[in-house]
Amino acid sequence: MFLHMLSDSVQTLVREDGCQDLPVLFKRNRHHRGSVYTVAWNPTGNVLATGSNDKSVIVVGFDADNCISNSTDREFSFHKGTVRDIHFHDDNTMLSVGGGDNLLHLSDVEKGVELFAYSGHTATIHTVTSHRDTLISGSEDGTIRLWDRRSNTCTRVIGAALGTQGKSGISSLSLNNFGNLLCGSRDDGLCMLYDIEMGKLLAAFSPHTPVTCKSVQFYRNPRYILSGSYDGTIALTCAEQVLLNPEVNCTEILGTHRDKVTDVTWHPTKQAFATCSADRTVCLWTAKDGVDD
Question: Taking a C-beta distance cutoff of 8 angstroms, is the pair 27, 283 a contact?
C-alpha cells in the first residue's frame, strides 16, 4: 500500500497491516489552552478551525501546498462550554455547537459574530453538518434534528428510527456529497447509515472498539468514511461494502494518537485529512492511494 504526501515528489511506503502510522505533515502543540475537541476545513481548504474545552474557536489561515499557516490566528469566544463540533456551510458561514446551552450556533467567520442560535435539543449537541438550506444536528438526547436555514425552524426529529432516543447519544454526523445518505456515530461505538429521503436506517457497523466513535466523515468519493475513536485510533471504512454486506469487516486502521481522537476531517481538495486529540495535538495526514477510484 503506497501513501503519498501533498508534495508529488515525496512518497512513503507503509505496511498493509496498518501498524506503522502515516506521515504527519503539519502539527501544532499547545494550540489551545485545553484539549482540542474538533477541527474543520472551510469549503476552499484555506482556513482551518478548531474548538476546545477552553470554550474557544481558533481559526487559522492555511497554505495547503506548503503545509504552513499563512495568517494571524483568530479566536472566537461566544460559547458557554466545550466546543464539540465545527462545520463550515457552503457560503463560508460557520456552524458550531457546544456544552452549556444546547444550542446550534450559526456565525459569520469574517466578522466574528453570531447570526442565529437554534434551540430544541434537550441535552448537549455533539455534532452538526449541513446540505444546501438544511442544517443537521445530533445530541446527547439521542435525537437528530433537521433545521431549515431559510425559516430558522426545525423540520424533522429523528430518534426512534435509529433506536437511540433515550439510550445512546449521537456523537457525530456526516452527509455524503449527494445529501441523501447520512452517517451517524453513537456513544457506544456503533455507526449507522441512514437514508434521508426514504427516512430509513440502511445498515450499522463498528469501525473501532466498543467505546465512543467520536467523529465520522464521508470522503468526497462517498465510498469511504473516515472515523476517529476514544480508543485513539483513526479508521477508514468502505461504505459501499457495508451496504452490500454489513457483517464483513470493511475497515482499516490508519494510525493512532496518544489519547482520545476527538475529531477527523478530510481536506476538501487534497488526499489528506486532519485529526485532533485529547493529547492536545492537531495532525495533518496523507491518505492512501485509491480513495479517489
Answer: yes
